[in-house]
């Protein structure tokens, strides 16, 4: 079977909500990483086969097929098409999967892939809120099929995060310790220059704005997000933010044609669905299924990036998979670095690749929970 290779991976800094990147148009934020990707790798722009971007809530500045519009806003050739993917939080990880599948099928040779999200301009669930005048604030309301299958059970990320915490016996205090460590790791990584190679400065910003110095005392003082979710506070949840990321995925023929050096090989790609009411537990089953299909075990994996949508998600996954926390999100996760929805999957893979290179690890696994009770799993092999 033809192989798919990662030649480059980069990202913008993470701008905190209403921070330094808040004024940047979403198209321009996407264009920023695409322009850098093309300039850094020497492949003529007209030779790209496609641009595949993840983005959630594609309204307002994020509407109009932002993969295509970002490419054009970057001043790149008109002949290159683009398509935008929405698999909720896993959108740009799925974009990487689609790019790799296109290359492995032999149909494409050079694909720019990534994602973008400006959560300052388009807050989470704005697409849902936009439907309120039409009576569609709840996307499940009025669906006879959904009601027949799931009744009126809440499809709610806060409900799911609390349910996971209760089921796996994770206290609020334990989750706050986890969250504080996420910030500590992110701050240490930034201070140690670990993000320098992957960040392309944007609007004068060359560092992530989201990690912060905190304390367990500060976290303990926060109110829960709702009375029904006593353990879930902003401290144990991912941060909203503004960011973009991009990777270059190519075939073996492209490596030879353009004299490129591959940095990693796509070893495994899969996606799995789980119970949409539990909503955030799919990475557990998806990781197990991926390892079985790949003929691997967790002890074969040198590093893991799993999205910190909530502390309970990662902590439950770690309990079930019995994986070393010291090898999981080693530079912090979304609690500290932010979760720019459609860009997060590409950001995680970018960080995973750079950390494998820094540490000399061979295999890295990436997974994340996604709306609808889904999870993508990617395994890359550093070359």
From TrEMBL:
InterPro entries: Thiolase, Thiolase-like, Thiolase_C, Thiolase_CS, Thiolase_N. Residues 5-252 form the Thiolase N-terminal domain. Residues 261-382 form the Thiolase C-terminal domain. Its EC number is 2.3.1.9. Pfam families: Thiolase_C (PF02803), Thiolase_N (PF00108). GO terms for molecular function: acetyl-CoA C-acetyltransferase activity. The active site is at residues 89, 339, 369. SUPFAM superfamilies: Thiolase-like. Keywords: Acyltransferase, Transferase. NCBIfam families: AcCoA-C-Actrans, PRK07801.1. Belongs to the thiolase-like superfamily. Thiolase family. This is Acetyl-CoA C-acetyltransferase. It comes from Pseudomonas cavernae. The lineage of its organism: Bacteria, Pseudomonadati, Pseudomonadota, Gammaproteobacteria, Pseudomonadales.
């Amino acid at each position: 079977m033809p192989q798919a290779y990662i030649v480059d991976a980069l990202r913008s800094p993470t701008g905190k909500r209403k921070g330094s990147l808040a004024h940047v148009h979403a198209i321009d934020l996407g264009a920023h990483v695409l322009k850098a990707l093309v300039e850094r790798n020497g492949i003529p722009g007209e030779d790209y086969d496609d641009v595949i971007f993840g983005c959630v809530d594609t309204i307002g500045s994020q509407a109009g097929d932002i993969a295509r519009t970002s490419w054009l806003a970057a001043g790149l050739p008109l002949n290159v098409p683009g398509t935008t993917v929405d698999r909720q939080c896993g959108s740009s990880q799925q974009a990487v999967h689609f790019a790799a599948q296109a290359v492995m099928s032999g149909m494409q040779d050079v694909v720019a892939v990534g994602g973008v999200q400006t959560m300052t301009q388009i807050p989470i669930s704005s697409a849902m809120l936009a439907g309120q005048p039409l009576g569609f604030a709840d996307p499940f309301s009025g669906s006879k099929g959904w009601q027949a299958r799931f009744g009126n059970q809440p499809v709610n990320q806060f409900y799911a995060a609390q349910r996971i915490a209760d089921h796996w016996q994770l206290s609020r205090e334990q989750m706050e310790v986890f969250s504080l460590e996420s910030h500590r790791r992110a701050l240490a990584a930034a201070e140690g220059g670990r993000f320098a190679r992957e960040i392309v400065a944007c609007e004068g910003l060359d560092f992530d704005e989201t990690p912060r110095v905190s304390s367990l005392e500060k976290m303990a003082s926060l109110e829960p997000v709702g009375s029904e979710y006593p353990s879930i506070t902003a401290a144990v949840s991912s941060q909203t933010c503004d960011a973009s990321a991009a990777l270059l995925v190519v075939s073996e023929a492209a490596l030879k044609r353009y004299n490129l050096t591959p940095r990693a090989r796509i070893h495994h790609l899969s996606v799995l669905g789980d119970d949409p009411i539990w909503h955030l537990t799919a990475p557990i089953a998806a990781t197990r299924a991926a390892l079985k299909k790949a003929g691997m075990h967790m002890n074969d994996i040198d590093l893991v990036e799993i999205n910190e949508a909530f502390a309970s998600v990662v902590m439950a996954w770690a309990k079930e998979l019995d994986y070393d926390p010291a090898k999981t999100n080693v530079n912090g996760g979304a609690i500290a670095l932010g979760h720019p929805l459609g860009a997060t999957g590409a950001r995680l893979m970018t960080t995973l690749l750079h950390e494998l290179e820094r540490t000399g690890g061979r295999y890295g696994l990436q997974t994340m929970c996604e709306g609808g009770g889904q999870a993508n799993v990617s395994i890359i092999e550093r070359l």
